[in-house]
Amino acid sequence: MTQRYLVTGGAGYVGSVVAAHLLERGHRVTVLDDLSTGFAEAVPEGAEFVEGRIQDAARWLDGSYDGVLHFAAFSQVGESVVRPEKYWENNVGGTMALLAAMRAAGVRKLVFSSTAATYGEPEAVPIPETAPTTPTSPYGASKLAVDHMIGGECAAHGLAAVSLRYFNVAGAYGALGERHEPESHLIPLVLQVALGRREAISVYGEDYPTPDGTCVRDYIHVADLAEAHLLALDAMTGGAATGAPATETSAAGAAVPAGEHLICNLGNGNGFSVREVVETVRKVTGHPVPEITAPRRAGDPAVLVASADAARERLGWTPSRPDLADVVADAWAFARRTATRDEEGRA
Ligand SMILES: NC(=O)c1ccc[n+]([C@@H]2O[C@H](COP(=O)([O-])OP(=O)(O)OC[C@H]3O[C@@H](n4cnc5c(N)ncnc54)[C@H](O)[C@@H]3O)[C@@H](O)[C@H]2O)c1
Fold it and tell me: Model pTM?
């Protein structure tokens, strides 16, 4: 059944890929994005685009929407340390306004982009959702505050919500890929070296208690991540988002009913070290990638790997692209496409 969804932050990396998946399933999509870090051309064809802030969501949201997928946020960890107020205002204040608009309009389903940064330095890996949440940055703290806010909204006002705690999102979906400015994510940074746009990649710390001494992270393909969002909507609606028949659940007896806030990690459960990522980029691109060894960065845990058991059990999610080489190959195709377009734009 066709549903209508508001996608906040749908001009950004993850939001645009999820919006494209929703459209492919035949849903109606409105993207609300202020283009603060996103790009109008990333809004997928077929989506309605409203340029505006989530802080003003009440202007656009009405009862014709079946749910909201909420990606809009600032997400630079380092910036959040020096400008915490920017993160509280946008991530927390913006979400408060969005939740109020949803309550007023009677829109009672929400999928939220949470993050592994809510956990901070883990006591044990793989990290389950029951792990202590002790974020080490204002960014992680702002996302954790939103998770708490959503929990209260579910309990008090009958919202059904799924918070998806992403680990390291990577890869691309055709013409939709990662474009953060400044870029802080490892794979696009290493690809910039392969493209000749950056001289070398800095490897921060070689003395971690890991097999090769560099940090280990869990990379999840953005298309696998998008599938999890559709399954989260299914869990709240009883099969509508993926078009699957509502045999086991119905809107009335959904797996995530009104009043529940489900929190699920999204990762592959496999860790790759910084050095393995750099080596994979060399293999996939055929380009040399010079490295510079730099000191450890404060607040970088040695290993961050997800336990995604809850997503498997509650949402029926299985990542289908766990191979790092596939993730890098898709990101490389996107990086080359973007570089060619930039060069043509300058010519
Ligand atoms: N990329 C990752 O690895 C990762 C990991 C964990 C969590 N997340 C979360 O996923 C979400 C999407 O991340 P991304 O990598 O696509 O980031 P992004 O910066 O590419 O996308 C965010 C989008 O939100 C928009 N936006 C920001 N504030 C807004 C506001 N007040 N009103 C309207 N639009 C606003 C931006 O213009 C941008 O298009 C974020 O909430 C982020 O915290 C991302």
Answer: 0.95
